[in-house]
Amino acid sequence: MKPIEKDYDKEDLTIDDVKEIIGNRIKVAIKTSMKTYRDVAKNIDMSYSYISDVANGKYLPSIQTITKLCNYLEVEVSEIVGGYEYWIHPKGLNFDKKELSEQELESYYSALSDVTSWLTPKNRKLIGKQNRDGGINNIVKVKESIQRAEINDNSMNLLGIYKDDVVTYNDKNIDAPDSIENGKIYLVKIKSEHSHILRKVFKSKDELILIPCSQSSNYQVVSIDFEEIEWIKRAIMITKML
């Protein structure tokens, strides 16, 4: 049983539209599985009221909640989030709970202070309409030189990042991995056929970390989800600017 969905104009989607779409898909999946909201709540350790609110489009659940729900209902995650991955936000954890050295913490916060403008799906309603070529207006002012990197790691797909997605570095004069400074944060826009996701890249030696984040309405980072950080060991290939 597939949910009946309105014919939304994706260029004009709002966060409330996506809440309704995802909620309706969840509602149909629960009904098809012959379960109740109370069954789901009990088995994925969530409150009944929260499951009901999600199914009725009041909240947009995190990817962890969706994954738990799909595992219990025995449906594919793509059946719930397919086409709307950009909007699904990873659950945030307190940055300070991660065991990092003082030097790493200092480098991180120092670099973070240089990143002054980015948005996440949480604030999608503040972003302009999509361009015809799939780009997003008003996310961030792109600097003079843009390099591209190719992700060859299927383990990223829980973040809505897929093999062969393109990462665009918004920074000047990046022409080789060695020119990405250790400890410095680079804002990236991950582009795929159906979605655009902003992440930060943090380099450590010859490895790159993609960091998802939560932020408040004034664009200050409030939490980092280190459970979902992926260390991409030599999986990023910097290419010449197209």
How would you characterize this protein structure?
There is one protein chain. A hairpin with a 2-residue loop joins β4 (196-204) and β5. It is built from six helices and nine strands. It has 242 residues and is α+β, with helices and mostly antiparallel strands. A seven-stranded antiparallel sheet has the order 8-5-4-3-2-1-9. The protein has helices spanning 15-32, 37-43, 48-55, 63-73, 77-81, 102-112, and strands spanning 146-151, 166-170, 185-191, 196-204, 207-211, 213-215, 221-224, 230-233, 236-239. It starts with 14 loop residues before the first helix and ends with a strand. The relative contact order is 0.13. It folds into two domains: 10-87, lambda repressor-like DNA-binding domains (434 Repressor (Amino-terminal Domain)), CATH 1.10.260; 95-239, no CATH class.
